Amino acid sequence: MSPQQSLRIALVARCFMLVVLGANVVVTSEEGFDRSDGFLALAALATVWALATLAEQRSELRVFSPVVEGAAVGVICGVSVTPFTAILLALVLPPFVAALLGGPRTGALALAATLAAVVFGALTVVGPLTEAQGLAIFTWGLAGLGFGLIGAFVHVNARANPDPLAPYRDAQRLLRQLIDLSDDLSSGLEVTTLAGTVLEEVGDAVPTESLAVYAPRGDVLVPLAARHHGADRTDTESVSALAWAGRETVIRDRAFALPVGDSTVLGGVVPPGTAREQDELRRTLDALRERLAPTALQLDTAVLFADFRDAASADVRKRLAREMHDGVAQDIASLGYLVDALAAAPANEKQGRQLAVLRDRITAVVAEVRQSVLTLRTSIGEAESLGTAIGSVARHLSDASQIPIQVTLDEQAARLRPEVEAELFRIAQEAMNNAVKHARCTVIEVHCEVHAPDAVITVSDDGRGLQPGRADSHGLAIMRERARLVGAELTIDNRPEGGLCVAVRVGPAR
Hints:
Number of helices: 15
Strand order of the largest sheet: 2-1-5-4-3
Shape: flat
Largest sheet: 5 strands, antiparallel
Low-confidence stretches: none
Helix content: 55-70%
Distance between the termini: 57 Å
Radius of gyration: 35 Å
Structural class: alpha+beta
Number of domains: 3
């Protein structure tokens, strides 16, 4: 049972209790009983339960809400016990709701608060209780203990047997909300564009020779956008790391950095001769941080959306890889066993040759499916760089195809954004696969240059060059779509010396 279902049960229980107590107010004919007093007590309970229901929508208030609700209900029941003893029925609800939502300990606290409050309210307003009133409080208090145990039992069992579809229901609800909100996102969710906007605003306020916006990825900062005019990037990166770790503005010599959002930090270096007094620069940066708050919020949202998209696509790839490995690959392999059985006793020599060709073809298809499974499952981890991941795929492809694949790397320590790394990796992977399958080449050369946030990857071969596309071929179109997703430039050209060159570039040309 999900938390939302528990909240709905609590709401239904409160509404039902109000109906029952309202019926008691209407039909009660005790001597000295004024129905207006009964409806007043009923209104007070309705107010308390409405506020409790609202408070339970906020996770940080759920710890305190049951105890406060129990105390309020206890006081109302205590002051109304004479002559409307039926109102004590409400004492069973706070322990039940508290245990249902928060477990046995919360239920026990709510029960204690309810009983203490009802006794206090009765003794303070009504005076000494009659034997009948004391017995009624004891009886309904005991009933509250029983209902609290029921609520605790439901809570514990719901946690022990969670609904496996609950995450999907929650995701469905949140995705619908995101779709509804998307029309109001005037600046979109493009990380590079929003990070560039931040750089423009800062560049207009502070003269700089180096400026970059970073987002954390594990223990390191990844540049989202940068502008360097011959300056050493090391100072910008190091001071940004200090600002992010302390969540405060840092000024060191000509370098400065400040957090601009919940998941982004800005770093820069002012040119020699333009360095200001640190107090003046700090005031400028503090004012700039306030002015950047709206853009920073938009950028944080875009970074979170990119992380969500990457996680979702990785799950889809792994699921497809499992289905291909356990389904298609196994089915094709079983056909191979059937062909082997037929080939053991062919009807004639011609059939034997045909079965041998068929067996070779099945073996090739199985190998291709297994390579596709490896392609789907391979991804860039937190610990390895883009170049390392490309090199790993190149080794696997070279071993399987017996075509030499030479990989050269020129990478700096700073990483690209996760979604950029993922798309560049898939483009390089597809380019190598295409060369192995279709180029009829003798060697493949891969060059990976990463100076975050810029990068360029080229995959070249000495094969037959670009051929007319088949109707069922979507590889090049998918590569172009991947490049567009991260604002990269993709070029596919025949080489003058023969063969094909696929190049993908992020950032300015080098």
